[in-house]
């Protein structure tokens, strides 16, 4: 009995030793010897495509994302030369030093608006750039050239040259955007890569924000962050309805108040820049301000409608036509002027050289003045 016990103990010891050696040197042998658990997975038939979930905006995003691009800008700096660099003894020991400072870089977004390479973006994205590079959603990169820009609406048009037809965004058939419509904001926030956020149209016709000269913004709560500037705001069908431009923020991030330039304005600027390289607007040479109820009462007016002429530039079209400070413009070519913003837009839309009838309220009488519209001066620094 004792002998059998010794044989059993030796056999167990040898078996444990063999398992230890195999587990250390050839563990796969033990795994192959152990039957693996099988998980039953149901797969869709080959070639079947997943249908978008009900209420999904994936088709709109997929339709518009290829046309939204990333814009990378660089600006070479130039530092101030130190007087020691002009000392021959200093140069002998330390050599020549370059005058340039490190270059600055920036990023933003843009929208391909035609298959032949025209790109819409914000002027503030590229206004100080010495070099512009555009990266498409598929990874292709192109050097871009500036076609023209319009600082007064904060829009710019770029052009990239490609032998291939480029993916262009679709413009809507009409201007039917309404408060409450769902919109998607597409861009490159913080440089993390192309991102789509969703929201609704919070308001239309936002102005007097102090962002640009001509303001008629779409307000949305779709998240817009730094880097989204110049990107696309699209509707639920994937059509372009605006160019994302600015946010209201105290932290630098999105607080749900973003602003986009309507596609109607963007399209007009695009067509003018492509045709002539610039945007031409009408101008009459007046300073205007709101006619508040208090001001209206001081002038003896019963209502506060119209635009108060606060100043007239000497020698300007308005000056030559007899417009005076204190006049209130109430109509232009028979169309009622509601406020200063409406007047600014109406005058800017007039072609230079056109003669327009300004109806002004002066004291107790109304006068019709014939004004020869001039050309709005180009803002300083625009090339």
Write the layout of secondary structure elements.
Blueprint: H1 2-25, H2 27-33, H3 58-64, E1 68-75, H4 88-94, E2 104-112, E3 118-121, H5 123-126, E4 131-135, E5 141-150, E6 155-160, E7 182-187, E8 195-206, E9 217-220, E10 232-235, E11 240-247, E12 258-262, H6 263-276, E13 282-283, E14 286-290, H7 293-299, E15 307-312, H8 317-321, E16 328-332, E17 335-336, H9 340-348, E18 355-362, E19 365-372, E20 374-375
Antiparallel strand pairs: 1-2, 1-4, 2-3, 3-6, 4-5, 5-6, 7-8, 7-10, 8-9, 9-12, 10-11, 11-12, 13-20, 14-15, 15-16, 16-17, 16-18, 18-19
Helix pairs in contact: 1-2
What would you note in describing this structure?
- This protein is an alpha+beta fold.
- It folds into three domains: 58-160, Trypsin-like serine proteases (Thrombin, subunit H), CATH 2.40.10; 182-276, Thrombin, subunit H (Beta Barrel), CATH 2.40.10; 282-375, PDZ domain (Pdz3 Domain), CATH 2.30.42.
- Helix content is 22%, strand content 31%.
- The protein has nine helices and 20 strands.
- The chain has helices at 2-25, 27-33, 58-64, 88-94, 123-126, 263-276, 293-299, 317-321, 340-348, and strands at residues 68-75, 104-112, 118-121, 131-135, 141-150, 155-160, 182-187, 195-206, 217-220, 232-235, 240-247, 258-262, 282-283, 286-290, 307-312, 328-332, 335-336, 355-362, 365-372, 374-375.
- Helix 1 crosses helix 2 (27-33).
- The longest helix is centred in the first third of the chain and has 24 residues, at 2-25.
- It is elongated and about 135 Å long.
- The N and C termini lie far apart (108 Å).
- InterPro entries: PDZ, PDZ_6, PDZ_sf, Peptidase_S1_PA, Peptidase_S1C.
- GO terms for molecular function: serine-type endopeptidase activity.
């Amino acid at each position: 009995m004792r002998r059998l016990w010794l044989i059993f103990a030796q056999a167990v010891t040898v078996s444990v030793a063999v398992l230890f050696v195999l587990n250390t040197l050839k563990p796969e042998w033990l795994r192959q010897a152990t039957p693996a658990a099988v998980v039953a997975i149901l797969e869709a038939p080959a070639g079947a495509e997943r249908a978008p979930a009900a209420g999904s905006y994936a088709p709109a995003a997929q339709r518009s994302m290829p046309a939204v691009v990333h814009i990378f800008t660089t600006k070479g700096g130039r530092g101030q030369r130190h007087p020691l660099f002009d000392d021959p003894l200093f140069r002998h020991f330390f050599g020549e030093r370059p005058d340039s400072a490190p270059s600055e870089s920036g990023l933003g977004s843009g929208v391909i608006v035609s298959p032949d390479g025209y790109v819409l973006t914000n002027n503030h994205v590229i206004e100080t750039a010495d070099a512009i590079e555009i990266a498409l959603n598929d990874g292709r990169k192109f050097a871009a050239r500036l076609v023209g820009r319009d600082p007064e609406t904060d829009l710019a048009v770029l052009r990239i040259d490609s032998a291939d037809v480029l993916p262009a965004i679709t413009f809507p058939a009409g201007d039917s955007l309404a408060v409450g419509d769902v919109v998607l904001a597409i861009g490159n926030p913080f440089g993390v890569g192309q991102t789509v956020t969703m929201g609704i149209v919070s308001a239309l016709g936002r102005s007097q924000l102090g962002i640009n000269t001509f303001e008629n913004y779409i307000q949305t709560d779709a998240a817009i962050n730094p880097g989204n500037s110049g990107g696309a705001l699209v509707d639920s069908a994937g059509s372009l309805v605006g160019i994302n431009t600015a946010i209201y923020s105290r932290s630098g991030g999105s607080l749900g108040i973003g602003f986009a330039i309507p596609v109607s304005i963007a399209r007009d600027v695009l067509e003018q820049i492509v045709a002539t390289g610039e945007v031409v607007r009408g101008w009459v040479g007046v300073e205007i301000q709101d006619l508040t109820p208090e001001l209206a009462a001081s002038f003896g007016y019963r209502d506060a409608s119209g635009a108060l002429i606060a100043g007239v530039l000497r020698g300007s079209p308005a000056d030559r036509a007899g417009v005076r400070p204190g006049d209130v413009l109430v109509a232009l070519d028979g169309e009622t002027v509601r406020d200063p913003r409406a007047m600014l837009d109406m005058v800017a839309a007039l072609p230079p050289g056109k003669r327009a009838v300004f109806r002004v309220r002066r004291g107790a009488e109304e006068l019709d003045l014939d004004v020869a519209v001039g050309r709005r001066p180009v803002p300083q620094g625009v090339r």
